[in-house]
């Protein structure tokens, strides 16, 4: 072996060792990462405090009541035709996974309760698998840097975002992420 070959071989060994060390560091860091309680689902907070979410009947809903659940949030509005399918599919998902500590929240973007209720009834949207909520100030959409409709976000039980879909709802992908999370694969 000539000196050039030895230098190349040595360089490759050093690169492999460094790659291994970086991999070990990243894996250990990921395993030891805990979410600060103040960072849990921070998208539901503003500098003034928690975002005020109301039920269709006008009751204030506390997001903390979902802290132990995998939380799926869909943002919708009456002017969004593609939201209809997403809402119905997510309602079915909510019903299918109700016994698995999975909750689905359907947050309407800044429309009043009467309009939201009329839209749900007119479009024959099944609400049995999700909690319809109102965000009069559109604060949640702003906090997540919303871009299009519908927007679907899934949080794990620790409050970390594990899926964020903007626009076209990909039901199979969300189901895959949900199953992986429930199995502890994520």
| Oligomeric state of this protein | single chain
Low-confidence stretches: 29-38
Largest sheet: 7 strands, mixed
Number of domains: 2
Element-level helix/strand string: HEEEEEHEHEHEEH
Compute the number of strand runs: 9
CATH homologous superfamily heading of the largest domain: Glutaredoxin
Q: How does CATH name the architecture of the largest domain?
A: 3-Layer(aba) Sandwich
- End-to-end Cα distance, whole Å, is 46 Å
- The first-level CATH class name of the largest domain: Alpha Beta
How are the strands ordered across the major sheet?
A: 4-3-7-6-5-8-9
Average pLDDT: 84
> Roughly what percent helix?
25-40%
The gyration radius over C-alpha positions equals 22 Å
Strand content: 15-25%
Apparent shape: elongated
């Amino acid at each position: 072996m000539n000196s050039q070959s030895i230098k190349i071989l040595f360089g490759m060994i050093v690169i492999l060792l460094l790659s291994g060390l970086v991999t070990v560091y990243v894996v250990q860091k990921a395993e030891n990462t805990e979410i600060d309680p103040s960072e849990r689902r921070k998208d539901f907070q503003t500098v003034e405090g928690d975002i005020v979410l109301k039920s269709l009947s006008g009751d204030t809903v506390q997001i903390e009541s979902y802290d132990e659940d995998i939380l799926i949030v869909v943002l919708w509005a009456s002017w969004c035709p593609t939201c209809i399918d997403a809402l119905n599919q997510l309602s079915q998902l909510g019903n299918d996974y109700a016994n698995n500590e999975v909750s689905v929240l359907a947050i309407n973007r800044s429309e009043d309760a009467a309009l939201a209720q009329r839209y749900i009834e007119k479009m024959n949207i099944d609400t049995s698998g999700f909690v319809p909520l109102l965000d009069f100030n559109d604060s949640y959409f702003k906090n997540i840097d919303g871009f299009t409709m519908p927007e679907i976000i899934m949080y794990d039980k620790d409050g970390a975002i594990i899926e964020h879909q903007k626009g076209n709802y990909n039901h199979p992908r969300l189901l895959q992420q949900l199953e992986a999370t429930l199995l502890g694969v994520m």
